[in-house]
Input
Amino acid sequence: MQRGAKLGILGGVVAGMLGVAGYGVYNVLDALNSDSTSSTGNAGSAKSTQPPDAKEITGTAADFLAAWASGDTAKAAGLTDSVRTATTALSGYKDKAHVSAVKLTPGTPVGAKVPFNVAATLSFQGKTSPWAYDSALTVIRGTSGKPVVQWKAAVVHPKLAEGASLETGTAKQPTLDFTDRHDKVLDPAKYPSLGRSFTQLRTTYASKATGGTPGVETWIDGADGAVTETLHVITKGTGSKFPTTLDADIQAAAEKAVLKRSGSAVTALDVNTGGILAVANNPATGTNLAFGPNAAPGSTFKVVTATALLKAGLTPSSKVPCKAHDNIDNGKMYKNVEKEGNEQADFAWDFANSCNTAFISQAHRVPGTTLQSTAHDVFGLNQNWEIGVKSVNSSVPGGTGDELTSEMIGQGKITASPLDMASVAATAKNGSFHQPRIVAADLIAGRPSISTTPLSPGVKRSLQRMMQQTAQSGTAATAMSGVGGNVGAKTGSAEDGEGQPNGWFLAYRDDVAASAIVQNGGHGGDSAGPIVAAVLKAS
Output
């Protein structure tokens, strides 16, 4: 069979193979004419324009999987809508990824989508290893009128982006055993959210480690040729320990906490050093939401706004009425999410109960670039952070009118990540900004020196008093119940298009600060709050 993968289709797939005969001649001609059309019928037959029916979906998927599993790359590619691209990808699966055998087991179709299980055998330099994962394909009506598999790189492996490919070989760098701040080895299988960061760390810093021998692995080559993620280890090499700022216990708590809410992410920091103690996402292998892309942080940004207002002369006991709804200079009308209003409120009550109208009523105290400069000069936001792995920088563009009032409550054009807002909480607790990092600062090439201004003792004391009140009797009280120690918190929710607002929460406990987001989570105290509380309890 040469290098082709061996047939491994179960059950009904075998029956589907009976229809394979006759595809070859048409598809060869089709491939010569176009990369985007394929057909299994005769040139003179009428073309259907209807979506494929259930029988066509099942049969086309079975025929494609049968051809792929048998090693007939030309036949499998001919059953797709992109013959040349599919040929390259499936050939690479055998020759570049070194898959010597594969069994493909289709699942129950969901509409036009057919899930399937892959049980592959990897063979490289005399070493073999089983490799199993799940993928899926979609059957569409081709331009010829016949059903075809809609070709995407993700058919081969669900983590493949367009232009990416699989490769098996001797790893480009020796294996590194990453350790936490207590010198405990962090097993990537136990902490799935760290896989992406570990791949980046190894690519960037492996050359700085001494000793070790590379192993044999299967990885993803990105469209630019760079290794983006290791998917499977055939033979583990010997490596050196590479220290990180992570904490195994806090990381374990973070991984467990985000599982309770889909579309969630959390980051925890050491408030005294900026060291990243934990980062977790749900799903773990999806977008690294904890480090960006960013979104409006909602009322958690009121920590920054409150700092600007305290510096401008307000105190926690200053009388700032909380109206049910209000606007400034006939601008945008705002309402409150948490409370209808409190005409007798002081600033501490407004902060603890997240009164939007009270905050926007003080816009005259932060004219021009005051809010923007506070975010930049005190909290290190709106600057280029280099944390040791990829992250997205926050943005506080500033503005006037409706943009200013919106930014005062964390909306408008402000964007941030849980990493950014965990740092805001850490700065509020410590009094000084420490640029977050996941490795030793002196290892990060080109790491900028960010100069910030510490909080004055009075502002620091007032800010912490208001954050403590929020944690004990305000909107964060339910989530923070049972979190002991010196605590402070702030809840938030932020509109992000249609659907429920994103839920946000930031808090600190003693020397650990954390922040979380739950996409479409609604009230931050209910959605993101329990995630942050679980992380802090583990510290």
